[in-house]
User: Fold Peptidase M20 dimerisation domain-containing protein from Turicimonas muris.
Amino acid sequence: MAVFALVNKESKERQMNILEEAIQTRRKIHSRPEEGWTEFETSYLVSERLKSLGWQVYIGLDALVPEEVLGRNPELVEKAIERAAKQGVPAAFLESTQGYTGVVGTFDTGRQGPRTAFRFDMDCVQVQETSDANHVPVKEGFASQIPGMMHACGHDGHTAVGLALARWIVENKEDLCGSFVFIFQPAEEGTRGAGPIAAKGWVDDVNFFFAGHCGMYCQQGQLGIGAKGFFATSKLDVSFTGIPSHAGAYPERGRSALTAACSAVMMMQGISRNSEGDTRVSIGKLNAGEGRNVTPVHAAIQLETRGETEEVNNFLVKNVTNIVRGAAEAYEVKYEIKLVGHATTLTTTPKGVELLKRAAETVEGYKTVDIYNSIGGSEDVSLLFPTLTPDSSRNLREPRLHRGSQTL
Amino acid sequence: MAVFALVNKESKERQMNILEEAIQTRRKIHSRPEEGWTEFETSYLVSERLKSLGWQVYIGLDALVPEEVLGRNPELVEKAIERAAKQGVPAAFLESTQGYTGVVGTFDTGRQGPRTAFRFDMDCVQVQETSDANHVPVKEGFASQIPGMMHACGHDGHTAVGLALARWIVENKEDLCGSFVFIFQPAEEGTRGAGPIAAKGWVDDVNFFFAGHCGMYCQQGQLGIGAKGFFATSKLDVSFTGIPSHAGAYPERGRSALTAACSAVMMMQGISRNSEGDTRVSIGKLNAGEGRNVTPVHAAIQLETRGETEEVNNFLVKNVTNIVRGAAEAYEVKYEIKLVGHATTLTTTPKGVELLKRAAETVEGYKTVDIYNSIGGSEDVSLLFPTLTPDSSRNLREPRLHRGSQTL
Amino acid sequence: MAVFALVNKESKERQMNILEEAIQTRRKIHSRPEEGWTEFETSYLVSERLKSLGWQVYIGLDALVPEEVLGRNPELVEKAIERAAKQGVPAAFLESTQGYTGVVGTFDTGRQGPRTAFRFDMDCVQVQETSDANHVPVKEGFASQIPGMMHACGHDGHTAVGLALARWIVENKEDLCGSFVFIFQPAEEGTRGAGPIAAKGWVDDVNFFFAGHCGMYCQQGQLGIGAKGFFATSKLDVSFTGIPSHAGAYPERGRSALTAACSAVMMMQGISRNSEGDTRVSIGKLNAGEGRNVTPVHAAIQLETRGETEEVNNFLVKNVTNIVRGAAEAYEVKYEIKLVGHATTLTTTPKGVELLKRAAETVEGYKTVDIYNSIGGSEDVSLLFPTLTPDSSRNLREPRLHRGSQTL
Amino acid sequence: MAVFALVNKESKERQMNILEEAIQTRRKIHSRPEEGWTEFETSYLVSERLKSLGWQVYIGLDALVPEEVLGRNPELVEKAIERAAKQGVPAAFLESTQGYTGVVGTFDTGRQGPRTAFRFDMDCVQVQETSDANHVPVKEGFASQIPGMMHACGHDGHTAVGLALARWIVENKEDLCGSFVFIFQPAEEGTRGAGPIAAKGWVDDVNFFFAGHCGMYCQQGQLGIGAKGFFATSKLDVSFTGIPSHAGAYPERGRSALTAACSAVMMMQGISRNSEGDTRVSIGKLNAGEGRNVTPVHAAIQLETRGETEEVNNFLVKNVTNIVRGAAEAYEVKYEIKLVGHATTLTTTPKGVELLKRAAETVEGYKTVDIYNSIGGSEDVSLLFPTLTPDSSRNLREPRLHRGSQTL
Assistant:
C-alpha cells in the first residue's frame, strides 16, 4: 500500500523530533513482537500514547465486534495476557480489553471538515530473528525478546508511524480541519483483524481512508501507490474426524480421516479455473493420523483460496465446501470448516491517487511515484474500504455458509 | 457346480436314446445363442418340450417377479422378440412371456415324497465363435448363427441335460415319488436372473435343490462338488450427470461428470480390507465425456463388488454408495446407482454331498468325486438355495438401499 | 478473425457475379462436408478452380510437411478417398495428394510489390444437420449429404470467399502489384492442419498475412478485428495399456489402465495455476475397460491444455507429461502421449488493423469496426503468423518431447 | 506367542525365590521404561545379572549387525545414553554398546545336547502411565518415572522371566544338557530389532527356539500356543521434498510435496487385493507443509503393509514403491522410502507345540492349552525362526530394493 507523506518541508525542525520519537517507538515495538490477537503490550503502548496526546481511545469491545473475529486462539491469548502482565501492563488495562487487542483513536480538530481514517497494523510474524551480530536490531540492542516471533513484515514501523502522525496532527491542529480515525489493527497476518473493526462501523462515515505498507517494491525516495490488484481471499481450516481401529486386525471398523483429507486435497487442487478472474487454491498444511497402525482419527488442513474478484473467490470457497462435505460423506467421517481469515479486493480512487502524488512531491528526498495495478497478494485492509467496496465490508461476511461446521 | 448323476446302469438302453436327444437339443441351442433376458427361442424350445412330456409349464410373470429383475435391457429384448418371431416362435408364445424369458416346469409323480428342484441356466455369453474348420460346431454344422454371441460357457449343455432329465423322470415316474421343480433360468451371466425366480417362491418349499455346471475344473469321469467358496457379489452401474460448458471459454460454468467418476474410482479402489472375509472391488469400465473441449456431461461406470460373506459384500456396497453420493456432492453432479446383478454365498449340505457321491458311483465311466471349497467366482444359483441360506434369498434383496437412484 | 473487405464500390457489377459464384460454391461445399484430413472433394474443387483462374497450385507433399501433420486418422482418409472417387474425383488427382488434403495457390501480378498471404480453412465439424424443412440448406436443396457431418462452423463460406477473392485478384491484376499466397487449409478443427503448412515455409517470406472467420460476435455490416486473445493450446491423446486378469479370481495379476487413467485425471485437474497467464486443462473424454469383471487393459483420454502465452501452455503440457509418466510408473502400465493438435497465441499488427479498417469503410453496407482483445478460444492460424510470432511457428513444434511415446 | 512353562512341581521351594526375584526385577524395569533402541538401563541390568549368574554376555556390535538395524533414531539414542549415565550406568558399559542396545547371553551345560534359544523383548511403548492411586504400579511405588513411556505391552515381564529362567538353568544345570542362547531383544515395537540379531547368526545353529508373550487372549492358568497367523509386515517411512513458492504470487514455481503425498496415499489405498492371501495397507500418519500460503516443501508418511504370506507382503511393498516413485515423477518432487521395520510369517512346529503342551501340564494351576491359528498381528520374532522359515530371515531382507532412496 501507499506509504503516505508525513510532513511538509516547513516544519522540518519539529519533524526531526517526531522522527526520533518514531524510531524509538518502532524499536521498542520491534523488541516485543506479538502475533495476531496477542498484541497486548503493543495495544497498551499505543493506547497510552494516544491518550497522552489527547486522543479519544477505544479498546476491546468498544473497538471491534467479537462475533466477527477470525482465527483467534484463546490459549495464545491467555498466555499473551500473562506475558504482558509480567512486562508491567496494568491489570486494569488488560481487563478492559476483554481479551481483544486493537486500538481505535479519534481526534476532532473542532473545525468542520472531512473525516479521515488511517489504518496501521500491529502484529508480527512467526519468524525467528537472526542473532547475527551485524543485524541492526542485534547491534543496536532492540532485537526480538520473544523466541520465534519477529516484526519481519514492518508492522512495528507502521505502528510507530501511526503514533508519530497522531502527534503531528495534534501539533498542527490549528492548520487542520475535520476529524480523524486511527485504526491500530490486530491480526493483519492471516487477514483476520480488519473484519471485526469494519463491522463496528468505524469507517462507515469517513470521507478519506488511507493505509500503507513500508518497503514492498519501493526504494528509498519512491512512493508506490497500489491502485488495485489485491486478491480476495479466504483462509480456511478444515478438519475431519474419523473412527479409530487397529488397521491390521479390524481395518473395516475404522474410518480414516487421513484418507478423507487426501481425497479432499486431490479434489480441491482440481477446482476449475474461472473465466471471470484469476484463481488460487493453496493447500498449505495437512496433519493427520496418530500412529502407523491405527486408522487415523484426526486430520487438519490449512488452506486458502484467492480470487481476482470477490465472486471468483466465493466460487472457490463454495467448491471447497462442497468437496469437504462430499469427502466426509464418501468416507463416513465428520468434518468442520472454519473461516479463519478473509480479505477482499480493493481499488484506490483516482482522487486518492492524486492526493498522495501531490503530497509526495512536498517531501524531502522524494524521487518518484509508481502506480501498481497487480500486487499479487491479499490484505484485509480491503475490508475497511468504505465507499469503493461498499458491499465487500458487509456482504462478504454475511453468507457465511462456510463458517459453521456440520456433523453427518 | 456339481454335475449331477443322470441315470443308473439298469436303464442303459433308454439312456442312449435320451443321450442322443440331449446331444441334438444341445446342438440346436448352441446354434441359436441368446444373451441374458433375450432367451425367447430357447424358452420356447424348453417350454414346448416340457409340455410334450406332460409337465406343467410356467412362463413370463407366472415364472418370476418382474420387480426383482436386474440388468434387463428393454431394447435388446425388443430386438430378440423380433428375431424369435422371424425364427418361427409363435406370436402367442411371445405375447404370453410378457417380455420376460425363463421357464419353470413342475411334475408330480402322484406319490407322496420330497419336492426336488433343479436349476438349469439358458443364456449365452458375448463371444464371437471361431470359424475355424476344425472347431467341432463348425465341422458338424451347429455353430452360432448369431454374430458376437456364443454358448461358450456351456449353458446350452445345461439346458439340454435339463430336458433329458425331465424325460427320464417321466419315463421312470413309476419308480419315483414326490414332485419336481425344474427352473430353466435366464440371465445367469451377470447374476441377474435367479433373484426374480427365487422371489416367486419356487424354492420356498422344496426339500432338495440341485444345480450343476459342466466342465470347470473336472475331467471326463470326474464329479466335482462345490461344497462352498462362491463370493457374494453385487453388479452395479453408476452414472454421473454433470453440466456442459465450453472448457476453454467458461470452465467454471461446467460440472464434470468425468472428474466426479475418476474421483469416485480412486476412492472405491481404496475401500478398506475387511477382517471378516476376503473382498474384491472391480471397476471394469468407465466411459465419460462428449468432446475434447466440452466439460463432460455423462459418465458411466460398470463395477462389481465381491465378498467372502454376504455381510462383507454389503460392507463394500455400502462404501460404494457412500462414495458415489460423496463424489456427486463434491462435484455438484447428479448420480444414479443401479443394481444390475446380485448373488450370494452358498454352502452345500453334507447330505447333498453324500447323495451326489453315491449317485456318481452308479454311473458308467465314473472315476472320482472331488470336493471344492474355494471356487473364486460368483453364481446367482446361490439366491435359489432355500434352506441353507434362508436369509440370503430374501433379506439380501430387501434393504435395497443401493438399488434406487437419487438426485441432488 | 477479421472478415476482410472483398471489393470496393467501383467494381460493383463484377462483384455481383463473383458473389453469385461464391454463393454457388459455398452451397456445393456445404452439401459435401468433409472433416479434418478428409477434404478430398473440397481440395479437388479448390484445385480445379484455382487452376482455371491461372493460379499455380500445390497439393499433397508440395503443400505441406507430412511429419508435422497432427491428428490424421489413416482409416478415415482411406474411406474418404473411396468416397471422393465415387463422387467423380479423378484417380490421378487423388494419387497426387499422396493422402494429404490441403491446397496452396500462388499468383504473381508480375509487378514488384509485397507478398500477401491469406488462409481459408476447409474442414467441417461432426454435427448432424437438421432435416427441418425451414432450415435454408434443406429448403434450397444444399443440405449435407454426409450423415453426421456438417459445415456448422462456416468453413464452406471461408473457402468460397477464398475462391471468389482469387478470381477478383485475377480480374483486377492490372491494378495490383506483388504476389499472393492462398492457403486452403485442412483440419483447422482440432488445430491440426496449420502446422504442417507453416513448416513447408509458405509464410516465411510474406509481407502481409490475413485470415478471417465469418460470424463470431459480429452482426451484418460489422467488421470484428481480433487484435489478440487466442490461447496457445495443445490437444493431447493419452492412452494407457495395462494387463488383464479376472478381477475376482486373480486381481493381483492385472494392471488397471482404467485406474491409472483416473489417477492421472485427478492429478492433471490439479495442475497449478500460473501467475504468468491464464490456464485451462480440459479432460474431455475418457474411455476405459473391456468388461465388468476384467482388469481394464485399455484407457484413452482426450484432453487439451490452453495457456495465455505459449510458455504457460508449455508449462501445462510438461505437467501433463510428467503426470502421465508418473501414473504409468505407479500402476506398472504402459503409456502413450500423442500431440494431435496445436496452436499458439497471436497478436494482430497495428498496421494490419489500420489496413482492415480503411478497407472496411469502402464496403457498401459497412457499419462499424470492432476490436476484440479477448476471444477466449484457440486457432491454429496462429502457427502461420510469420513475423509477429517468429518463434511460435517453429520453436513450439520443436521441443516435441511430448509427441513421442514411451514404454516402461 | 506361547507362554512357556517355567518350572516343574518338584522345585517348588526354589521356585518361590526365583518368582520373588522376577517380580522385583519386573518392577524395577517397569519403573524405567525405554522405547526401542534406547534400552540402555535395561540392557545394563540384564547384562549385569547374566554375568553374575555365570553366563557369557554379548552386547553392542557383538550382539547384532548394525547395517540391518531399522528405525533407530540417533537423537533419541543420544538422549537415552545421557539419561542412563545419570542413572548410574557406567560409562564403560555405555561405550561398549557402541550405541546399540540388546543383550545376548549364552550358557553351556558342558554336556552334549541340543542348542536351545529363547527370545525376550525389552522395549516399552509410548503411552503415558495413569497416575490413578489404585493402579498397582502407583500403589506399590513402581510406576513409570519417564513421562510418556510405559511398559504397557508386558515386555518388562518378559525380560524378568528371561532372567529368572537364566537363573533356573544355572541352578538346575546338573539336570540339563546342551547349551542355551538367550536373546534380550531391543525394539520389538515397530518390528525393528529382531532382524539385526538374526543377521548376526545367533539362531543359525539352534535346535529349539522359543518366545512368548504374556497376556494376549489367555486367562490365568491358560497356555495359548500361536501355531500360525502372524502377518508378514513392512513398516515404511516415505518422504517427499518439493520446492517452495508463494502460493499466491507464484504458484507455478512451487512443487507441492503435500499434493504428491495425497496422490500417493490415494493410490496406495487402492493397491489391489491379492488372491494368494489377505492384505493390509495402513497409512497411519501424514504430516506435510509449512504454512498456509507456501507451496509445501516437506511431506512425511508413516505406513505399513501386511500380507498373509511374505510374497503377498512383498507384492504390497513393490506397489507402494512404484506408487511413491510415480507420484514423485508426476509432481517433480524428490522422494525417499525407508524401511523402518519388518517381520515375516511364522509357523510353530508340531514338535514344539507338543513339547509346550507337555511342559504346561506339569505346572501348578494349569488349566488348558489353546492353539491359535490366526492372531492378526505381526511379530519380528518371526525373523529369528531358524529352521521353519529359512528364507525369511535372510532373503526377505535381501532384495531390499525398497530400503534405499532415490532422487529424481
